[in-house]
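The instructor's notes for this session suggest beginning with a concrete chain rather than abstract definitions. Hand out the sequence below and ask the class to guess, before any prediction is shown, which regions might be ordered.
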Amino acid sequence: MRATQAIGFGGPEVLVPVEVPEPVAGPGEVLVAVAAVDTIFVDTQVRSGWGREFFPVTPPYVPGGGIAGTVRATGEGVDPAWTGRRVVASIGISGGYAELAVARAEALTAVPDEVSFTDAAALVHDGVTSAKLMATTAVRPGERVLIVGASGGMGTVLVQLAKAAGAHVVGVARGDRKTALVRELGADAVVDAARPDWAERAREALGGDGADVVLDGVGGDIGLAAFALVADGGRFSAHGAPTGGFAAVDAADAAARGVRLLGIGDVQLTAPQHAELAARALRAAAEGTLRTVIGGTFPLERAASAHEAIESRALLGKTVITI
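After discussion, reveal the predicted structure:
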């Protein structure tokens, strides 16, 4: 079957189209004919060799951890009624950039007919993590929420969920196209991170006292500047690090101000939990209450171009590989 492998750690050029043997569904597993694959920034980081202590992959490997497609076959112990159904599944950090992939049956979520495979793939990770972040930070009506990286795949979902929760939402994005998108999605105010005074403008947009909740999907110096905008007694979630590292927040400073710190470890889910939140996101997409923003789709053979697009930060929202 056709697949794309990372033949080494390095730049996007290490992603090479290959032919590999077809996988077989084992006990408790299903074989999925893949139609679309979620592509997130961490995929590019793992490909570059970053985070090996968290993501133990060894080249050559097939990237891709979030798939949408049709169940081709079921393994021992799996209800055969899954065969032929449209599904999404989170399969870890590898195996998705291929015509066929294996998923645990407990990780499957049925895709409503109203939702395309491309949109479903766009939600398989970011829709789920966003829902978990909202629950973990317990955003309440009337609270002030600052979303850093608001034009990205997860940020665009968070803006919509925070507004639906009744929050006053301030988004941080970079450039005219991205800030316009965040405003279109319902943010009450949008700040351009390209401006040297963006933090001051964000504080003004938050009403002067700061944010009750900061959702930081960027990390680095920008994330650290966002931490300074949390009001005393607020919550700060550092769940993204496309800058190369999470915000270097001083835990003692946070404790002194009564700020609750949350990290990527607070949004880890079991397979059944992930499947339930995926079902919720897909239901919202089917009902039209959650909009997916897909900035670009790339065929399997051009996975390297997909990674280049993500790393260039040129696209709005999600990048999806189609098969």
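Then share the key points. The chain has a mean pLDDT of 94. The first strand starts at residue 2 and ends at 6.
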